[in-house]
Design a protein that fits this description.
The protein is mainly alpha-helical and 85 residues long. The chain has helices spanning 9-12, 21-50, 58-83. It is 71% helix and 0% strand. Helix 2 runs antiparallel to helix 3 (58-83). The model has no long low-confidence stretch (mean pLDDT 87). The protein binds zinc ion (ZN).
């Protein structure tokens, strides 16, 4: 057995590229967009509960945040599929 390389199933799942700065940048952008979207939804719910102000004013901002999140997700997936990282 000396010198024989044993490949475990978990090792087979490792990506070819251990770290990719672009992948991390795209993932961070997706996380930021998700956080922004969630924050706006929370603010809208708070406005509804408190009956203070115009809670419908959040609709456009939430829609824009969803679009940004969707684009960030697509960019991340596209990069990972193309780059293999
Ligand atoms: Zn990459």
């Amino acid at each position: 057995m000396a010198g024989k390389i044993v490949v475990t199933p978990s090792r087979q799942l490792l990506p070819k590229i251990a770290y990719c700065a672009e992948r991390q940048k795209l993932l961070d952008a997706f996380c930021d967009a998700t956080e922004q979207s969630t924050m706006l939804q929370d603010q809208q719910v708070a406005a509804v509960i408190s009956a203070d102000g115009d809670f419908t004013g959040f609709d456009l901002l939430i829609r824009l945040a969803h679009e940004k999140k969707s684009h960030a997700k697509d960019a991340y997936i596209y990069h990972v599929e193309r780059h293999g990282c």
